[in-house]
Write a structure and sequence with these properties.
The structure holds two protein chains of two kinds. By secondary structure, chain A is mainly β. Chain A has one domain: Immunoglobulin-like, CATH 2.60.40. Chain A contains no helices and ten strands. Chain B has a domain of 88 residues: Immunoglobulin-like (Sandwich). In chain B, 10% of the residues lie in helices and 34% in strands. In chain B, the strands form two sheets. A four-stranded antiparallel beta sheet of chain B has the order 1-2-8-7, with no helix packed on it. The longest helix of chain B has 15 residues. The chains are: A mainly beta, B mainly beta. Strand 7 of chain A pairs antiparallel with strand 1 of chain B.
């Protein structure tokens, strides 16, 4: 198991600015993701710090996968800001899946702010050969 | 949303140009209103938010997927240093990547706070990928009420 052993470069959180209006206040961010594919499954790994496992929602319909993770600012009432380098905000990202996914077998695990989503592909129906009969 | 007017409306100069220095001042003022506290583009990973209440500073950073054993925190006088590493494992052979946005590696970040800190009383916690460090001020740095004696 090799690790990419270099210094981590800072990347600003990507704020989502779509035409769709948000009904809740505050910024919405796109989680950074790794997506990889094996012959029988697709895996999505997403960084969603601050999201509690029981508040994460994953939704798949019409080939569109939606992951949504609410984040509340952990700053308490008497605290005042001294330095602010990033904003707290909800995570939201959508993917359109080309493969057919076996919805019943989707597995999701969120630990330490990292979501790992396993999406098993549906076994392709075997191609059926149709013989054209000649009269 | 309630929008406060931050700066007065200003007409263009006669030549029709915006004064770049004025524009710069306006932008700075806008940033001050939107993000109170010192706002600096974060230069070093991880980005940190610092808040304070009466006797404590709170430093928070987003560090998803980091083992707590891989985070080291040091406090000396008024300086906080956080170092560590974030491991991202390769998925092995036979996988093809579509996206690779997450980055792993080492990090080291120092922060100088306005007050001297009580290093022995610093506490750190890690939950849902967010690191929180609570740093009490040193006794000497705490605000003290001084009573004026009559006499």
């Amino acid at each position: 198991m090799a690790t990419r052993e270099q210094e981590i470069q800072i990347a600003e959180k990507r704020e989502l600015t779509t035409g769709t209006e948000q009904l809740h206040e505050g910024p919405v961010f796109q989680p950074a993701v790794d997506i990889f594919e094996k012959p029988d499954s697709i895996t999505i790994v997403a960084d969603m710090p601050g999201v509690k496992p029981d508040e994460l929602t994953i939704d798949l319909r019409n080939d569109v996968l939606t992951i949504r993770g609410p984040v509340q600012s952990p700053e308490g009432e008497p605290e005042t800001a001294v330095l602010r380098e990033f904003s707290w905000g909800n995570f939201f990202r959508q993917f359109t899946l080309a493969e057919t996914i076996d919805q019943a077998k989707i597995e999701a695990r969120l630990s330490d702010g990292v979501l790992r989503l396993e999406l098993p592909k549906v076994e392709k129906a075997k191609p059926r050969q149709i013989v054209v009969k000649t009269a | 949303m309630f929008i406060r007017r931050v700066w007065p409306a200003r007409s263009f100069s006669r030549a029709g140009w915006l004064d770049p220095l004025q524009l710069r001042r306006d932008m700075d003022r806008l940033f001050d209103v939107l993000w109170p506290g010192e706002t600096g583009a974060p230069g070093v990973f991880p980005a940190m938010n610092v808040t304070r209440d009466g006797d404590r500073y709170y430093v928070r950073a987003e560090l998803p997927g980091v083992q707590t054993a891989d985070i080291q925190i040091a406090v000396e006088r008024n300086k906080l240093t956080v170092t560590g590493k974030r491991e991202i494992h390769e998925e092995g052979n036979g996988v093809s990547y579509h996206r690779r946005e997450r980055s792993g590696g080492t990090f080291s970040r120092s922060l100088t706070l306005p007050d001297e800190l009580n290093a022995a009383a610093v506490e750190a916690s890690y939950k849902d990928g967010v690191l929180t460090i609570v740093l009490p001020k040193a006794e000497a740095a705490k605000a003290r009420e001084i009573k004026v004696k009559a006499g």
